[in-house]
Each structure stands twice: as structure tokens, then as C-alpha cells.
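The instructor's notes for this session suggest beginning with a concrete chain rather than abstract definitions. Hand out the sequence below and ask the class to guess, before any prediction is shown, which regions might be ordered.
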Amino acid sequence: MTAGELYKMIDEIDWSQYETAYGNAAQDIPHFQAGKTPSVPGSLRELDDELKVELLDIFQGFAVCTERFSSDASWPLQLREKLKADLPVFTAVSGSKNEDTAYFAGSIVDSLRQKGA
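After discussion, reveal the predicted structure:
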């Protein structure tokens, strides 16, 4: 996957469906156009190791931070459910020969399988 393809995928995200610490993401990220949300986790196998590790690091942060989120906001639960839907992808990637890739993917899997989370 090229950087251009990745940017195209990012541009297709409907940012109005997400909230940031400062408000609605569509207002915070105005240069992205509304569109269909891509399945970045599903594309992980196609990425080179360096980019894969960086994305897994971000997904790990999401998985850990949404384990026990104390807020009335619905986005943490929605984000966690989307991550759980991609659990088979993270599980497959956790078997990578790349140490960093395997670590981050394994950590995501462990976090998403936490009971009560």
C-alpha cells in the first residue's frame, strides 16, 4: 500500500461521526472529506512493517484507553466495538515474525479480550 492510497482511505472517513477532546472531529479535521469509513485494520497485512507498527501502536492505545472509559460519551464504546470486530485481524497479525508487530497486535488482542471491558 502506498502513502497515496492510505491518504485516500483517510480522506474517505466520515469525521462527523467522531468526537475529539475538543469537539466534533469534522470541525477539528476540516481538510478531510466525509465518506465511508475504511477498514484500516483489515488492510494491516498489506502494509510494510514500519507503518504497520505505527498503526498498531495507535490501535493499542485505543484498545487500552477504552477498557474502562468513565464517560457518558458513546464514542469509546463504539470505537471498542469496531476494534473487537477486527479481533481476527489483530490475532492473525500477532503471529508476525516482526517482534514489534507481534507485540503490539498481541497487546491489542489481550486488551480486547479483557472481561468487563
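Then share the key points. The helical segments are 3-11, 25-28, 49-65, 75-85, 87-93, 99-112. The first strand starts at residue 19 and ends at 20.
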